[in-house]
Amino acid sequence: MNRSRVGKWLAVALVALLVVGAAVLVRQAFFGQKTISALFTSATGVYPGDDVRVSGVKVGTIESIKPEGTQTRVTLKVDHDVPIPADAKAVIVAQNLVAARYVQLAPAYRSSGPTLPDDAVIGLDRTAVPVEWDQVKEQLMRLSTDLGPQSGVDGTSVSRFINSTADAMAGNGDKLRQTISQLSGVARVLAEGSGNIVDIIKNLQTFVTALRDSNQQVVQFQNRLATLTSVVDGSRSDLDAALTNLSVAVVEVQRFVAGTRDQTSEQVQRLANVTQNLVDNKMHIEQLLHVAPNAFMNGYNIYNPDTGSAVGQFVMNNFSNPVEFICGAIGAVENTTAPETAKLCSQYLGPALRLINFNYLPFPISPYLMPSASPEQIVYSEPGLAPGGDGGSPTPPEIPPSISAYNPGPEPPPPFTGREPGVPPPGAQQLLPGGEFYPPNMPNTVSDMLNPTGGQSGPPPGPAPGPAPGPLAAEAPAPAAPPPAEGTPPA
Questions:
Q1: Where do the segments described as Disordered lie (predicted)?
Q2: Which of 95, 193, 470, 486 lies at a 20 to 30 A Cα distance from 279?
Q3: Nearest to 42 by CA among 110, 91, 109
Q4: What pTM, to 2 d.p., does this model score?
Q5: 78 and 111 belong to one structural domain
Q6: Domain that holds residue 197
């Protein structure tokens, strides 16, 4: 018996183990995350558990990071239902210098084409890492060294550039100030896009790398630029004529600007007035933009297009008591006649205002057009209820009950007391009307109650001893109750 029971338990445990194993295999095969490995030259700033994104949307996490010689293998876990193109690239993205980094898979899968299978590997030719700050400092140091003083040269390139710039800017301070003001506006626009500094540094790295790889082409460009400079020097007279014509054109442009200056200033002034009004009402505009979308959405949600009715009510609390609303508003005015005016308003307009008090708007929502079911889409619980049917068979009316509020039953029997009807309870004769029974040694008149001693200083003498009086009628024992009838409980 014990062996058979143990065998049954082992069989049940084996079946449960098989079911759990099958469930784990099915989940891993159809619902588990895909594993993708990406090879990077370095994995600085990323750690296991960081995000894996596609088009900025999180689709997985980094499972592990393992160095392999001169490269680093980063294992990614991506959701099973997110397809990744077979030619996808992996990039370590740093939003700024201090924020956490993540791995971006690009481009996103469109609608067709091969996808990366499970355990796929993205090689070094399809991965990229951001430029580190140390590399930027190294390049800046190299640039400053190249621009520094050189042996055998009078001054540095920077000093000669500054001297040439000073000579060129001499006497042009006003124009330089205007130029700097305009450049400050450009710098402000660029500052608003400072979030893309990582992309800028990355593109700068690409540009510097391209210059380094194109050293021969750069030398050829310099030679051709020298040839162009020689040609320009030989065509100095033609350039002088072109500059003269350009000066004439500049004069015409200045004349046009001077002729339309008043109209332009007027339009700018009007535009300034409009913008000033917007600035003055900034709080109102912000409040409107903050409240209006919710108000419109609430109004839209109140109406149910399926039933053509409202699912809520628009409440106007002030109109639940219009007398207090209107007359109270009049009384709140800061002048000497406001209280008296409020009293007159309540006295003369109160009866009329009380007739228009309401809590909800006094009209319903009844649109002309609303969705409704066509006759062929209506399913009746009984076919006879459909138009043209017999309407169903009538049921017989219910039989009214014999005893109800409209047809009372027989009078209920009197309550059981254990005495004959009309017989008072024992000891209650003195309480019956018309009786003259009083307890012994008790005054029965008002004078005896007020003067119980009868005007004597001491207590009155007691009566002569005689036979003991018999019990009063009120104190006589009650007659014995008759024996209970059969089926009646005793008292």
A1: 380-491
A2: 193
A3: 91
A4: 0.30
A5: yes
A6: 131-146+176-213
